[in-house]
Amino acid sequence: MYISKTTTILEDPFAPLDRRELRLVERCVAQARSRRWIPAARLISRAGNGWVYPVASGFLFVAPIEHAARCIAAAIISLVIAFMIYPPLKRSLARTRPCHNDEALADALTPLDRYSFPSGHAMTAAAFGIPIIVAAPPLAIPIVIAGCALVGWSRVALGHHYPSDLVAGTLLGGIIAATVAIVIL
Fold first, then answer.
1. 39-184 CATH, one of 1.20.144.10, 3.90.226.10, 3.30.70.270, 3.40.50.300
2. What is the pTM of this model?
3. Would you say 170 and 145 are in contact if contact means Cβ atoms under 8 Å apart?
4. 143-170 pLDDT, tens per residue?
């Protein structure tokens, strides 16, 4: 189902933005496919589903972080809040994913849910990463930024998200995590 140019804002408030961003997604998907990066994008996207967070938390206990337990607690609380917020928010905003607007963008790895805005992967990556940055800035900043960027790239490369979905998800996850980190850390 491709959004036609006659779709009105009343029918779909995201339609004008979708048309502008769809070209970016198409280019990203084409580049990932031509360079054979899709398997890496799938792996990174699956890691962003959440199973990597407990593994990363384990490394915090061996890293030189004075308050590793509080950092992990802040990250867990931030993740719980993000997981409580993004599903109903996505359903209420109901932005169609790029791969549903243009079937040529569809990948074998199907999205976890129907809607794209905001990106739950980007939101949870930021929600997990920000407390770690607060606890260990010199060590964590490049790792967290690289992790968030890779998760975001993978979601666009698979045709699951528009760039604005990632920006919104990252901002929301960052706000949640910063608030929790201020209280806990």
1. 1.20.144.10
2. 0.84
3. no
4. 889 989 999 999 999 999 999 999 999 9
